[in-house]
Design goal:
The protein is α/β, with parallel strands linked by helices. The protein has 14 helices and 14 strands.
Length: about 475
């Protein structure tokens, strides 16, 4: 009887240990799948806002321009006042700048970070902008009917799965802009890639923000950061309008000390423009602007610049080359979503760029989740795995030895790609994600860590 009891206990203990071991293996497999998801074709639907073939995500405000100008008179005056406040504030605080330089990591001008100034709140804008983002319906009505509709109701309910430490802020708030610059500088990034629409234009959920550029440039300069421009896909964007856009930006902002110019291999210092959704426009139109023989050629003029196209599908690399672009970037922070965003394709893309005298700029991100605005898009979520996903992306980028690495993003809260400080928050029926067990600045610290690692490895590449 004693032996039987001992054997029974032994079998129970063995079963328990085996069950725990199986659970442990399953957990490891899930984590690995999150870090390196299965290859996904571009045909896999991602979201209305990200695929222009399904739905144009921007809007031209031309038909209402006159009434818009009148309605925004007060807003423009308000922004001008904010600019004056910002300048006065900076003049008063210039004395601690030297101390600031000593405390913060040195900027890495080969680390570019995407930045959005489309957020608003009642205090600075008279209403909430973007934080009250609508829930986007699925393009298949049968699927759409299974998900909630409506829009978010800030400040407790915002269009994001994480909650910012600064709350539902306004991008016009000088204190917010300064806090952002300090965070980006602490992360050892060097170039802010500013989302930009021409004057009077905006995305479908926002309002024009070109008037805010001078304030961003001023604060960037205070923190020794540079600003490049991320040209968004406004309606009727073509060779002619792009020529005028580039001329406008360089004429208006090109003399500012924070305006970014990249030193080329030939020693020229040229402005750099990222062009989002560039593939929507056919190569023949781009070639009019970007090749020496083009009818609207910007080459060998005072406005000549470096133009970086978005690569999504593999075939886009040939279109980019034919168009006359100077390089390509991948933007999306979702490993496995598109050909360009899949880490395992970066080596072949870099080889293509090297053989065609193009720049390859991989985009790394800390994770992806947009179910607060696309509740049906769970399959494209990428768990942050406490920073491991971000570090895996950086590791993959460094393997191809790029001249520049771009980061998606500093504050695209809707898509959960932000590295801006986030805090735990629970309201009513909503529990926001957070960075626990780490502190709110963990992704800034990880960026700084990899910036230093990149610097050291780059020294070895150049030897």
């Amino acid at each position: 009887i004693l032996n039987y009891d001992i054997m029974a206990r032994f079998r129970r203990r063995t079963c328990i240990i085996l069950l725990l071991f199986i659970l442990f293996i399953c957990s490891i497999m899930m984590a690995l799948k999150t870090l390196r998801p299965d290859r996904a074709g571009f045909g896999d639907p991602f979201g209305l806002g990200l695929l222009p073939e399904l739905q144009q995500r921007t809007v031209l405000l031309d038909s209402k321009q006159n009434s818009l100008n009148r309605a925004q008179g007060d807003a423009v005056t308000h922004v001008s006042n904010l600019h004056s406040i910002a300048v006065n504030t900076m003049k008063a605080s210039m004395s601690p700048v030297k101390k600031l330089e000593e405390e913060l990591s040195s900027p890495n001008y080969n680390f570019h970070i995407f930045y959005y100034t489309w957020y608003g709140n009642p205090q600075f804008d008279g209403k909430y902008i973007h934080w009250n983002h609508p829930l986007l319906p699925h393009w298949d009505p049968k699927i759409a009917n299974n998900y909630p509709k409506g829009r978010h109701n800030p400040p407790e309910d915002i269009g994001a799965n994480f909650y910012p430490e600064l709350g539902s802020y306004s991008s016009k708030d000088p204190a917010v802009i300064e806090a952002h610059m300090k965070q980006m500088r602490s992360a050892s990034t060097g170039v802010i890639v500013l989302s930009w629409y021409p004057p009077g234009m905006a995305d479908e959920n926002g309002e024009p923000t070109d008037d805010l550029v001078p304030v961003v440039l001023d604060y960037a300069h205070k923190y020794n950061l540079k600003v490049a421009f991320h040209i968004e896909p406004y309606k009727d964007r073509d060779d002619r309008s792009m020529y005028h856009n580039v001329k406008y930006i360089i004429d208006k902002y090109g003399s500012h000390p924070a305006f970014y110019r990249h030193k080329t291999s030939t020693g020229r210092l040229l402005p750099m423009f990222y062009v989002y959704d560039s593939y929507v426009t056919i190569p023949e139109i781009w070639a009019n602007l970007l090749t020496v023989s083009g009818s609207q050629s910007i080459r060998n003029t005072p406005y000549d610049s470096l133009f970086i196209a978005l690569l999504v599908e593999e075939r886009h690399k040939h279109d980019i080359h034919r168009s006359g672009f100077d390089g390509m970037y991948t933007y999306f922070a979702t490993n496995g979503f598109s050909y360009g965003s899949s880490h395992h394709n970066w080596a072949s893309l870099k080889a293509f760029c090297d053989s065609n005298n193009l720049m390859f700029i991989p985009s790394v991100g800390p994770g992806y989740i947009d179910t607060s605005i696309r509740p049906w898009n769970n399959h494209n979520t990428r768990n942050r795995v406490n920073g491991k996903y971000y570090e895996t992306a950086f590791s993959a980028a460094l393997l191809v030895r790029p001249e520049i690495i771009s980061i998606t993003s500093f504050n695209e809260w809707h898509e959960g790609t932000q590295i801006e400080k986030a805090v735990p928050k629970r309201t009513g029926q909503t529990v926001y994600l957070d960075y626990k067990p780490h502190k709110p600045n963990v992704y800034l610290e990880l960026t700084q860590k990899w910036s230093e690692k990149y610097r050291k490895e780059q020294e070895q590449w150049l030897m």
